[in-house]
Amino acid sequence: MDGELYNLLISGDENAWEQDTKIMDLDRCIREYTEKDIVERYSKLGRTEIEEIKKIPCVFAYEDYCKKDACLGYITDILVRQAGVKITFQKVAVLPLESFHKLQFELDIKNWELNRTHWAIKKVDLYKELQLVGINLNNTKINQSVDITKHVFDVSFTFAGETRGLVQNIVNELEKIINKENIFYDNNYISQLARPSLDTLLQDIYRNRSKLIVAFLCEKYQEKEWCGLEFRAVREMIKEKETERIMFIRLDSGHVDGVFSTDGYIDGAKFAPQELAFFIKERLNFIK
């Protein structure tokens, strides 16, 4: 669905998109120049709506009198307060003013919109329309900048390499319902994991900077040295009675040190990746 929508943010502030944050009046956010069903779907700006909006590409433009180029990018965070809505964003490409005007009809922008500060969500495939002016947004889209030495993740995965295929499928499904930057999955951060003392960094991520750890238990997990290092953080959390932050998905009956027959788990063989991703999201909803 996100490929068929785009965020249009227009500001009369000539420096609005020069930084990485912008505060807008709440009554100007997703209430103007937006079709009724989209307003009903997103205007509450709750956690679920925000996570969906962050997956939708954006055009950051200026009111016409500014005579400035627009930018393409993504919203990375939204903070709602009574005083307004603070939007944090990342720009990835410039949309020249001439090209922006050329696409005005295709992007479903009414003339007066270009003279009004507001945020609308349009039912337009931005990727497709940009190609008409030679811009391929698929090539400019980049993963949100996440420094794994500092970032706090919603969920982190620990698993044996032999089960990567299943874990990858679950990650793919989970990224459809929560933002990718909130998931610690090693293949998403290959360059940052190529460093000395990786064991210390991983234990810090699992122990101190993950709301939920999902451990995929199996015979191979017990055999892996790195899994053992990661699971030390899990055992410490059990010792400190932080069990609400631990989720077991069992893939076979293999023994894993520190896991007992009285521990609850999900049988990974009984559910599809989409269902397992839903269970993970459901569990996150109960973690403050």
Explain what this protein looks like in three dimensions.
α6 (164-174) links the parallel β7 and β8 (183-184). The longest helix has 15 residues, at 225-239. The chain contains 10 helices and 11 strands. The chain has 288 residues and is of the alpha/beta class. The strands form 2 sheets. Strands 2-5-4-3-1-6 form a 6-stranded mixed sheet. The protein has a 5-stranded parallel sheet with strand order 8-7-9-10-11, sandwiched between helices. It is elongated and about 65 Å long.
Short structural description:
The chain has 288 residues and is an alpha/beta fold. 29% of the residues lie in helices and 24% in strands.
Descriptive tags:
alpha/beta, 11 strands, five-stranded parallel β-sheet, 10 helices, about 290 residues, six-stranded mixed β-sheet, about 25% strand
Topology:
Elements lengths: L5 E6 L9 E4 L11 H7 L4 H7 L3 E6 L7 E12 L2 E12 L1 H6 L15 E5 L3 H5 L6 H4 L12 E6 L5 H11 L8 E2 L13 H11 L1 E8 L1 H5 L1 H15 L6 E5 L15 E2 L5 H12 L4
Parallel strand pairs: 1-3, 7-8, 7-9, 9-10, 10-11
Antiparallel strand pairs: 1-6, 2-5, 3-4, 4-5
**Portion in beta strands:** 15-25%
Order of SSEs, N→C? EEHHEEEHEHHEHEHEHHEEH
Structural class: alpha/beta
In helices, the fraction of residues equals: 25-40%
Largest sheet: 6 strands, mixed
For the terminal residues, how far apart are their CA atoms? 29 Å
Query: What is the average per-residue confidence, as pLDDT, rounded to a whole number?
Result: 91
Q: Largest beta sheet: what is the strand line-up?
A: 2-5-4-3-1-6
Shape: elongated
Please tally the helical runs, counting DSSP H or I stretches of 4 or more residues: 10
Overall number of strands: 11
Low-confidence stretches: none
Rg calc: 22 Å
